[in-house]
Amino acid sequence: MEINNASMIAEMQQLAVESQPGALQPTVNTSQADFESLLGNAIDHVNGLQKQSSSLATRLELGDSSVTLSETMIAKEKAGVAFEATVQVRNKLVEAYKEIMSMPV
Q1: What is the model's pLDDT at position 1?
Q2: Entry's Pfam families (predicted)?
């Protein structure tokens, strides 16, 4: 899974500047939109890996000589690892949501 590090670093630097004493700057809440686009891009990337893996497997089964078994297996493993990572992130998000919802007001 490929994640855009530049946006995460920029957000961390902005938070570091804001956390310094006397640094009162008006802030715009763009973190929700950034998180949404980051998550959407990650899911699209995983979907692309799965489609590529499926396409390579189909071509290999049909006897396409330009596709090797090792290439197909690597693509399948990449798609599997990316999917497992996505499932783990989803599980952590659900767990955090449940914890927040169970907090007393």
Answers
A1: 44
A2: FliE
